[in-house]
């Protein structure tokens, strides 16, 4: 211990050593001496023993060894975290720094303290809150409000202020904005994840009905000024709706990731949905899009929130509330008309937290592309102490740990900014239609329809995909009860993705799924070559029947290894593991090519 006065002695014996000395392996004749009967007396150093040794004929030299400090790397003690903030709700923002508030689990947080300690607070980054407007006059938001990047598409004017209602129904956007960009040290409410970032308000949810043009206009608003778009909305979470973006919105999102931010791509963050176990976020075309980062939530002790939807398209998680009655277990943030609240919740609260973490990463490295941000999310998210009672944590074919509800884990702001700072943009992305089955296949209760597609993932062609990012199974299927359908897909490396879970409230017997793109991120980094297996069946008490008319397998990823040139600082990290895997695979393939070349010459 650094504070111990216990004195060690190093000395060189000329004769046979005494029983109280230990020979050291790195020097002949060098011994570590423990004075007899002093191991219990640690209150002071013993001058008498030193003098005794100096007088001993057998001792040539006596050296005092002073104690000094060493610290475990990667270990963060909650007691050592000290962030000075004057904001009254900061101590209740457990999702920022969790010390056990509201009976939470200490250390289960976004690790923003490390990112802030490195100097990253979101400065220079603009996040747009696409919602019911934001109270830009709020004293905790006004200094960070970006008026230039704001617009009201519900009323068609540049002032996205929320419409007044007696029940404060339109407080949603203001609460989300505070999570991201609430100012620090102003004695008002709490602190934003990226408290020096700019926040823009895009009011687009407060009209009698949504239109394709309103959504498309909002998603494509000022893409060279806005860096991150945060959306805490989607199709109705009633467990029976299957819906997604229409034509104009799809085009706007495609343009955003290809042209936004000077070609680096707009970053779209989406709440995964609040339909709970009755719904599946793969039936939400926004959350399951490849172009969005779908975020789920955990509560402050690591359990799932009761409203959490699970699906294979979720990439990562942050925090919200959804089980506890403790009034301080919710998300503390800004509220309408200069007020504060402790009651923000839902995956609505989770998505803005993620947007704030991404703002910190963009400040660390403004050159990150939209795909870089997804790779960083996969590599730096942590399992931490997250617990799902239904779905176990598993590893995919390249060793990356994932959960069907939490994705690759909870975002780690400190880990992300450190990796982002030295990140090298991932290689070009390619798309391969790996195969398609167009025949009608009947599905009956009590059995499973099993189909396979064997693919070389377009090897030998310009669009060859070797390292996976996203995989889509475009499926046309209907049944006597859509809610009883269950669809699983297994990759050639053995990773099983649940593409569709049962939805007890979905009674549809006519529409089914028409060319619906079910998406999985669970095979991230895998080699797609080989045989893919699709399993379709019914789960329920009543006998059902149906038919699958199409399964098209679409692979999206890179031809070259995305992590092989990245700098590794932590050799226990997911990046280190993935890079090692890539190096071994590259070596194996190089040897195989050499052998084939030699055989062909012979």
UniProtKB/TrEMBL annotation:
Active site: residue positions: 131, 172, 348
Keyword Transcription on entry: no
An annotated GO cellular component: membrane
EC number: 3.4.21.94
Metal-binding keyword on record: no
Residues in P/Homo B domain copies: 425-561
Keywords: Cleavage on pair of basic residues, Disulfide bond, Glycoprotein, Hydrolase, Protease, Secreted, Serine protease, Signal, Zymogen
Cell compartments where the protein resides: Secreted
Stated role: Serine endopeptidase which is involved in the processing of hormone and other protein precursors at sites comprised of pairs of basic amino acid residues. Responsible for the release of glucagon from proglucagon in pancreatic A cells.
Family: Belongs to the peptidase S8 family. Furin subfamily.
Protein name: Neuroendocrine convertase 2
Organism: Oncorhynchus mykiss
